[in-house]
């Protein structure tokens, strides 16, 4: 977008939210788009102050450094504060953990839908939610109960500001695609991870209508377009390098610090270790082949390793994996499969590593034993007998009920009319 030119579609909802004034009365990012250097300060003053300034004290409730003079501080000073929060590679005893946020903005309100929704997750467990229909940040996990009211007020203000920012981004991308009306959406996803050995990683992604649009390369501080239509958005955001610098500073600093704080709050609920239940199943394929599938169920935390071996050789290339997925009960599940020649299943073993296990677990497929087959046959016969008894009993009861409704036998005259039964004493007369 050329400097000073507003290409947003003139949708009616633009009148509801000012494109140049944020929810906190500060200039929004759209007002500074197209300018370099100091032009980034309003956005950073808005978002960084909300991240860093909790109270006018030298230390926040989370133990994070703050800028005492607040709005008088320059944006670059606050960027340095964020950068200083970058953690050393200190081991974390609870395995791999993650903090991520999902933002969703709609171009226009829909029935039963929020125009902006933000949800925060720690290890796939939602802990905070902001719904524009409610207008405030709310806890989603019981372990967030000790957090004071100031935290929720700050999160509410921050999400209101992000709602405005992402709405403007939604309308702008719509303009790039010549969409002037209709329901469209943008998605922002970002977060960080801490591994058990202290190493960390992070990500930042932006989508439009459910499809990948842009991502941030944190090494080069460059925006990577996922589709040709994203090039205009890429050029738009490249005009303000400080936007990428802010994201990098947050993801590699405050995000990791916040994750550790949330893990401390969550306590045993988030740092517990539940070992997996592992077993191997055998499946026949259409081409008369055989597949062995190694299942790992009910484990926590998420990080796990499933590998297939043939003797002393690891079958890394031959193994098919599925991504680890939530089980719905606070634990995770995963499987890994390998194709094997029929009749040679005994030589294959599944090796499982997880923080809840004291050693590598080795599991092989066990064919049903002879006693097991006999037990299965007997069980099947007993089941069939039980089903047969139930069916015969039901038919007998139905037949008896029908018999009870039949009319008693009697004499019938001409025309099929039944003759009335006469008492013998009356028929004989005097």
CATH homologous superfamily placement of the largest domain: MHC class I-like antigen recognition-like
Major sheet characteristics: 8 strands, antiparallel
The CATH architecture of the largest domain can be named as 2-Layer Sandwich
Please write the CATH class name of the largest domain. Alpha Beta
Number of domains: 2
Main β-sheet, spatial strand arrangement: 4-3-2-1-5-6-7-8
Per the principal axes of the C-alpha atoms, what is the gross shape?
extended
Contiguous runs where pLDDT drops below 50 for at least 5 residues: 1-38, 53-78, 411-430
Structural class: alpha+beta
Ends apart, CA distance between termini: 123 Å
Number of helices: 9
Q: What's the CATH topology label of the largest domain?
A: Murine Class I Major Histocompatibility Complex, H2-DB, Chain A, domain 1
Average per-residue pLDDT, rounded, comes to 76
């Amino acid at each position: 977008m050329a400097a000073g030119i507003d290409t947003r579609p003139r949708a009616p909802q633009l009148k509801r939210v000012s494109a140049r004034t944020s929810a906190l009365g500060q200039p929004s990012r759209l007002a500074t788009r197209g300018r370099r250097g100091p032009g980034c300060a309003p956005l950073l003053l808005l978002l960084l102050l909300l991240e860093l300034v909790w109270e006018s004290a030298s230390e926040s409730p989370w133990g994070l450094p703050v800028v005492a003079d607040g709005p008088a501080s320059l944006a670059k000073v606050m960027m340095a504060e964020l950068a200083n929060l970058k953690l050393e590679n200190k081991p974390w005893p609870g395995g791999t953990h993650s903090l991520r946020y999902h933002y969703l903005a709609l171009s226009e309100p829909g029935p039963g839908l929020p125009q902006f929704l933000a949800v925060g997750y720690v290890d796939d467990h939602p802990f905070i939610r902001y719904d524009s229909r409610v207008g405030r940040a709310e806890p989603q996990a019981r372990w967030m109960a000790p957090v004071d009211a100031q935290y929720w007020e700050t999160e509410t203000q921050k999400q209101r500001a992000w709602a405005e920012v992402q709405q403007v981004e939604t309308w702008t991308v719509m303009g790039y695609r010549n969409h002037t009306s209709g329901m469209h959406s943008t998605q922002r996803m970002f977060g960080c991870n801490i591994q058990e050995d202290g190493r960390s990683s992070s990500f930042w992604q932006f989508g439009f209508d459910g499809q990948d649009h842009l991502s941030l390369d944190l090494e080069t501080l460059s925006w990577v377009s996922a589709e040709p239509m994203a090039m205009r958005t890429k050029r738009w955001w490249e005009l303000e390098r400080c936007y990428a610098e802010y994201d990098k500073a947050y993801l590699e600093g405050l995000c990791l610090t916040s994750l550790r704080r949330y893990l401390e709050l969550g306590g045993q609920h988030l740092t517990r270790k539940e070992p997996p239940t592992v077993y191997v199943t055998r499946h026949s394929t259409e081409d008369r082949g055989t597949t062995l599938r190694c299942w790992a169920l009910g484990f926590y935390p998420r990080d796990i390793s499933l590998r297939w071996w043939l003797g002393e050789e690891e079958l890394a290339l031959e193994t098919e994996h599925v991504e680890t997925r939530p089980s719905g009960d606070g634990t995770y599940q995963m499987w890994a499969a390998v194709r094997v020649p029929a009749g040679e299943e005994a030589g294959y073993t599944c090796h499982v590593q997880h923080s809840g296990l004291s050693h590598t677990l080795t599991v092989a497929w066990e064919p049903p034993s002879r006693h097991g087959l006999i037990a299965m046959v007997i069980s099947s016969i007993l089941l069939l007998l039980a089903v047969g008894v139930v069916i015969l009993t039901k038919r007998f009861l139905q037949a008896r009920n029908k018999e009870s409704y039949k009319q008693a036998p009697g004499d019938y005259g001409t025309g099929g009319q039944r003759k009335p039964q006469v008492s013998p004493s009356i028929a004989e007369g005097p």
